[in-house]
Design goal:
6-stranded mixed β-sheet, 2 domains, alpha/beta, P-loop_NTPase, single chain, ATPase
């Protein structure tokens, strides 16, 4: 795979979640970009990413959950280098400053006088943006409580004894013949989440290298995340390398386990990230058919219809606040773009790229 796309941060029902550290572990050099909106951080990272994809390296693109067209980071593990946006809300503190982490300040390209003249406008926009996110998280939290009502119906109609046996059977099917390895790295991230554009994901991209893909079907509360957590624990005991993809709505739940060494993944393939088998090696695991009392959907049809409607409406409220924050951020960027000397940005970009290139030798 030349390029892999995912989120390391998420706007969730539990607030802003940051899983950057998990993905940066083991890198020998991390460049932390500082500078305001519109100073070319994402552009710099895209340039580095493209250069190394063109050179045949595997490149990880970490997208911004508040603006998926922008990047929060780029990682080229082949040369053990990462470049990340180190500005709020994902402030990254150096662990071995200088030796591993190094700051790159793009704020040196600002015409400070121009920005000083717009202090009131900038402050007003920042204050408006800061009000949007708590409102979005509040709406998502309310939606999660409605989702709990949805889950309750299926939990009350589940055969738990059968669920334990079924989960064990799936674990053995995936990992039963694997011998214990050296202790592997576990990386936590999101394959999708809530964005100003609504729910989106990178499932097809992330799973493109998997020769075996298991699509978990079911309903809320039918044990999908519980099964994934058991598979994760088994994989950790075996010392496998694991990519753990959390639910972008409820980060305490899991949506996918990907095992690169086995070229295998198993994921929750229900809305809003619903996929169907499309190639050889794809298989369906149907939790509803296996574990839920027959005709549960039909018996609770009216109740479920009401829950789904309320859930969808409440999620839409949260998304509207993310969109408002994005629109305000675009306005804020204009002030910084007007005050930025892009010749200085280009010089800094070329300098960083030269330093990274020197690590290839």
């Amino acid at each position: 795979m030349a390029d892999k796309h995912y989120f390391a941060c998420g706007n969730t029902a539990k607030g802003f979640q940051n899983m950057f550290d998990s993905n940066l572990q083991g890198l020998k050099k991390i460049y932390i970009l500082k500078g305001g909106p519109g100073t070319g951080k994402s552009t710099l990272m895209k340039k580095v990413g493209k250069k190394y994809v063109d050179k045949g390296y595997d490149v990880e693109y970490i997208h911004c959950s508040s603006d998926p067209d922008s990047l929060d980071g780029v990682i080229v593990r082949g040369i053990s280098v990462g470049i990340v946006d180190g500005t709020a809300p994902h402030v990254i503190e150096p662990k071995v400053a200088g030796a591993i982490e190094e700051y790159v300040n793009l704020g040196t390209a600002w015409n400070v006088e121009l920005l000083e003249n717009k202090t009131d406008e900038i402050r007003a926009l920042q204050e408006q943006i800061s009000l949007c996110y708590p409102k979005a998280y509040e709406a998502f939290d309310k939606a999660l409580k409605i989702h709990d009502e949805w889950e309750k119906i299926y939990i009350e109609n589940m055969n738990f004894e059968k669920a334990d046996a079924f989960t064990e059977k799936v674990c053995k099917r995936l990992l039963g013949n694997i011998e214990k390895q050296e202790s592997g790295i576990v990386r936590h991230r999101f394959f999708g989440g809530s964005t100003p554009k609504g729910a989106m994901d990178y499932v097809e991209n992330i799973t493109s290298n998997c020769k075996k893909r298991y699509f978990i079907k079911g309903r809320p509360g039918s044990g999908k995340s519980t099964m994934l957590k058991k598979i994760l624990r088994r994989a950790e005991v075996l010392g496998l390398e694991v990519e753990v993809y959390h639910c972008g709505f409820d980060p305490n739940s899991l949506d996918m386990i990907l095992l690169p060494e086995l070229e295998l993944c198993i994921f929750d393939s229900t809305a809003p990230h619903e996929y169907e088998p499309s190639r050889e090696g794809d298989d369906v695991i149907d939790m509803y058919t296996e574990l839920i009392n027959p005709n549960t959907d039909e018996r609770y049809e009216d109740e479920l219809k009401d829950i789904k409607k309320r859930y969808k409406e409440t999620v839409a409220v949260g998304t509207s606040y993310l969109k408002k924050a994005k629109d305000l951020h675009d306005e804020l960027e204009k002030y910084y773009i007007a005050a930025t000397d892009y010749d200085i940005i280009e010089k800094t970009t070329n300098d960083v790229m030269a330093r990274i290139a020197a690590r290839e030798r």
